[in-house]
Amino acid sequence: MTRVGLTGGIGAGKSAVTALLRQRGAVVIDSDALAREVVEPGTSGLDAVVERFGESILGADGRLDRPALGAVVFADEQARRDLEAIIHPRVRARAAQLEAEAGPDAIVVHDVPLLVETDQAGLYDLLVVVDVPVETQIERLAARRGMSTDEAESRIAAQATREQRLAAADVVLDNTGSLDDLAKAVDALWERLASR
Question: What pLDDT is attached to residue 74?
Fold first, then answer.
């Protein structure tokens, strides 16, 4: 099994890269999707989040109100750390379970937005960083997610710096060009992974 850690700042294009890798045969384990799964109604994760942050972070349907929770945790670093302490161990446990099910010859790509921040760089055979300048991140967050510049800057500031991610990288995928450019870079990465 080849274990790949994939990360990049918010708005860098990790989703596009994981889609391309999945098309080439990778088993992709998406930490964001797992982070949603571990706080579904009826889970211990949701119970712990409600215990820490109160019922105001729940929607009328009993599900986590992500914008309400985001407004709290992105404005308060301790609150963000508390949330991470609830979510991250549950996500890691579920990711390990999915990886074990992938099989011994699989190329398993762990899409982990906070990989550098949570000091997981050493856990993978190869660390891939999807990279764009901060200005591009802000533009994309405004265009695709409707965030204001202040909201985008707050989200970016809550993550590792671009320089920290690049320093941890074994492979950097520049995503400032076209989707075709990105696909060519992913093809080169895939050849490298398949030859391991």
Answer: 83
Model pTM above 0.90 = no
The distance in angstroms from the start CA to the end CA of the chain is: 9
In DSSP terms, 130 is beta-bridged to 8, 173
Quickly tell me which residue has 């398993």 as its tokens: 108
- CB under 8 Å, gap of 24 or more: what pairs does 149-158 form? 152/10, 152/11, 154/74, 154/75, 155/10, 155/74, 156/9, 156/10, 156/11, 158/74, 158/80
Whether the Cβ atoms of residue 44 and residue 94 lie closer than 8 Å to each other: no
pLDDT, tens digit (0-9, with 9 covering 90-100), for 110-127: 999 889 988 888 999 999
Sheet strand arrangement including 107-111: 27-30, 107-111, 2-8, 126-131, 171-174
- CATH ID of 2-194, from 3.40.190.290, 3.40.630.30, 3.40.50.300, 3.30.1340.30: 3.40.50.300
At residue 182, the pLDDT reads 97
Domain ranges of the chain: 2-194
Class of residue 50 by CB neighbours under 10 A (exposed 0-12, middle 13-18, buried 19+): middle
